[in-house]
Amino acid sequence: MKLFTTAPGHILTHILSFSHSLLRYSPKGVLWTIFLFLLFTLSLSLPAQEWTEPMNITNLGGYSMNPDMVIDHSGVIHVVWSYRIEDWHRKIMYNYSEDDVETWSEPLDLLQNTDLWMSQPHIACDSKNNLYVTYDYATGTPDKLVYMIGHDGHQWSEPIIISEGMPGSHYNNVIIDYNDRVYVFWDYGNTGDDYYRYLKNNSWSQPHCPYPGNDKIYALMEAAVSEQNSLHWIGSSIGGGYYGERLQYFFYNFLLNTWQEPQMPVEDTITVGKDISLKSGDLPECVYRTYPLPDDKTKLINKEGNYWGDPELVAGVNGTQQYQQIAVDQNNAVHIVERQKTVEGYGLVHYKKWDGNWIGQYIDTAYALGFQKLIFNNNKLYCTYGKAWEVEKEVFSDLFFVAYDIITDIKEETQQPTELRIYPNPTTKNIYIEFVPLASLWKNNKQQHIDLSVYDMTGKHIITLIKNKIPHGMQRILWNGTDKNRKEVKTGPYLVRLQSGRNTVTQIVEIIR
Hints:
The protein is mostly beta strands and 513 residues long. It is built from 3 helices and 37 strands. Among the domains are: 37 residues; 101 residues, Macroglobulin (MG2) domain (Immunoglobulin-like, Sandwich). Strands 15, 16, 17, 18, 19, 20, 21, 22 and 23 form a 9-stranded antiparallel beta sheet that branches. The longest helix has 18 residues. The relative contact order is 0.09.
């Protein structure tokens, strides 16, 4: 079941306000109130973790956009962004927080740019806390180039040209591996190919093209660095225009100094909105947005060994998902943040799994928002984003910042409570359910309390099959496909959920009549 949540007190406030309106205008208002109160009660069983209150970290008015951030090895948070003065005049701004987002420095104009359009700022940090900021110079002109400016802990350097001799370069990105090798990537507009250079021992390499002379146009969008210093990229191949792309995975093997052939993990046609993160073992998790509109969806796909799994639906809300970001926490749990359309504007939504389902939680809502950047660091999620408002038909935007503590799970709590087997599946009537509780959940071979129940795909309870203490060892039970009133359930998928203490495992069974 999908459920958007906020703080329980806020939920109750919204319920009372909404139900008051229903009672005034509809005789069915009482039923709606009961239904919404049940949702509120259910929300109390969700994890108590919450995002911090959104903090305005720029306070510039005007229009701030395209933020990027990094957290250095001293815990200082650094943010860069593009600030629009006029359509063709934009600055690159920077600020930082030394006390974990409690206070922020005054915004700094990095380049003192008086008339050019500077855009797409990115920031990275090496092990010595040196900062590297890349940006597109003279955006919107044929002479656009990729530049870099650095900070050595004391002062900012003079800008240098990275894509020298390659006018038309843009869409930069900067990545630093665990050996402090600095990579700068960009798209060379004249050919459509991606190029990169790297800084090693204070010397820049020549430009390299990962896939030269290829008949496809590849776009490398977001990257993650493995512990072996290899680069995992998510991007696309262009086919059919801006909204006719195919998801592509690119891998640079650092030890062999080679780029593998691109892989296409899914057949879905995609549009803007894709990101990548790594689980333990350097296994990639990728989020992406499907096409066509308005039936686009947010999906997740992961790689195990040499093979990609099936895509998993995370959200699908009337073609309004954008700016998907992904992060993996210390418990190997996946977090996704995206922008969605609301009745009155837009909302920033955080998705994570709870009891086998993706649960969406609103972080913030506004007239307009987006350009979010999500990272995980030191047991916390950090997210910065642009938040806009309108005054007399003029739109303004500042950057806001939120954080989210990740609770470190006890090892036994992160394990699945059983090996759960359901057969036959699909089935026309009788279903056998077998499970073996993990030995770690048993103390001195004593009995363990088990709750085995069936729900429909909306979360409605169908029947409880076991709610009792059971002995250690293999367990097998027959479900004849009826509900708690002994009526046959309808054709469709159902969730079989087994709970043992605080551990839960859920599987889907399909009934065919």
